[in-house]
Specification:
It comes from Limosilactobacillus equigenerosi DSM 18793 = JCM 14505. By secondary structure, the chain is of the alpha+beta class. Helices cover 41% and strands 24% of the residues. It has 12 helices and 18 strands.
């Protein structure tokens, strides 16, 4: 049996203490020692080390036990240690978010970027980072960066991005060299799944399927609490699945993506996409009698695709993340009803506030990279604007 060096054990215990700090808003050193089965002196030594690094702070005294005695000192993760900035690069937009170390949102921005090429996008990102650095206040400043890409990502490298051509551009190396901080690059549906795992809104489900519907359709897969990428980052690319239609063999995303739904909703009105989501909601409500039957076939195809994904991956819970569903929840209700009527028994939820989900998941990955906490269970602070609905 291989032996573990003293240094390796020390590092592992320090990460376990950090894990406890992420999982509890406040906690005493005695409780950490009890939870981890460590000596109090070991935890006190690790606390001193983390406090010297600026990662933890003491905030006062807790309640004494029923037997009386000294009130324990309470400690917590120091959120102002630093912040990460994450970007979601979509078809028509780019969103950016700054988050403290505990996940709390510090800043958010959104830009219309329908015509930018890759080089112009890089310059925009640098400009946004500069702007957020001027607003954000933290002891160490910027400590990490993250990018959520609508496309295939393998080991932090963009393999395929159909809506903006990043081929040949190493985002991770470029921004690591530019800012000297850890950088993560991930598929946006995978990032949505990480959000569900790390921001603890799904009550510790270990197997999660996050369906992300935008211009394409993707799914992020958490299995046994770990993000599953598959070969070359291809896992979860359900929108690229093939189905037979009257037009022959086509990809799923051509008939039940966000654009497919939008074309049906806007077919009889003098409006073109993109337009404000509130305007789309109003149009749908005005046209619902005519639009409902037109959507039935598309709803069925989406239901079939998700049903097959559920039977393939065996999740505990399925989350739908889509700005379209935020604006027109009736479409989600129809898809959920189709799934339930065809024997699906897993929990199915819609994420309200989905436009920030991939950003938050990417921020979680960046925080993990900064502290080298891959494989540990975090519980980050989710904004009140995001919720799970039936």
């Amino acid at each position: 049996m291989p032996t573990i060096s003293k240094a390796a054990m020390h590092t592992a215990n320090k990460k376990r203490v950090l894990e406890q700090l992420f999982q509890h808003t406040t906690i005493s050193r005695a409780d950490i020692a009890r939870n981890l089965g460590l000596n109090k002196s070991t935890v006190s030594s690790l606390y001193t080390e983390l406090a010297t690094m600026g990662l933890v702070e003491m905030i006062g005294s807790g309640e004494s036990t029923n037997n009386g005695g000294r009130r324990p000192d309470l400690i917590r993760l120091k959120r102002e240690y630093g912040y990460v900035i994450s970007f979601e690069i979509g078809t028509y937009h780019t969103r950016a978010m700054a988050n403290y170390l505990n996940g709390e949102v510090l800043d958010f921005a959104e830009f219309d970027t329908p015509q930018l090429d890759a080089l112009a996008m890089l310059q925009l990102i640098k400009n946004v980072i500069t702007q957020m650095q001027q607003v954000a206040v933290a002891e160490q400043g910027l400590i990490g960066l993250g990018f959520a890409i609508h496309g295939i990502v393998d080991d932090n490298q963009v393999v395929d991005s159909p809506f903006i051509n990043f081929r040949g551009i190493d985002l991770q190396t470029f921004f690591q060299d530019e800012y000297q901080v850890p950088v993560v690059v991930e598929n946006e549906a995978n990032a949505a799944a990480v959000f569900e795992r790390d921001f603890n809104l799904c009550q510790q489900a270990n197997n999660i399927l996050a369906i992300s519907i935008h211009r394409g359709i993707g799914s992020g897969i958490i299995t046994s609490n770990r993000l599953y990428h598959g070969n070359h980052g291809m896992a979860g690319e359900i929108g690229r699945s093939l189905v037979t239609t009257n037009q022959g063999l086509v990809k799923v995303e051509t008939i039940c993506s966000e654009e497919a739904f939008l074309s049906l909703i806007l077919r009889d009105v003098d409006q073109n996409w993109p337009l404000a989501w509130d305007d789309l909601k109003a149009i749908y409500q005005q046209q619902s009698v005519a639009t409902g039957p037109r959507l039935a076939e598309t709803v069925e195809q989406l239901g079939k695709t998700v049903f097959n994904a559920i039977t393939s991956f065996g999740p505990d819970v399925v989350f739908f993340s889509s700005p379209l569903f935020d604006a027109v929840p009736a479409i989600f209700v129809a898809v959920k009803e189709w799934l339930l009527n065809h024997g699906t028994t897993v929990t199915i939820k819609r994420v309200q506030g989905s436009q920030q989900v991939s950003l938050l998941g990417t921020s979680a990955l960046a925080i993990r990279a900064v502290l080298d906490l891959q494989g540990y269970q975090l519980s980050l602070v989710a904004p009140a604007t995001i919720s799970h609905l039936d």
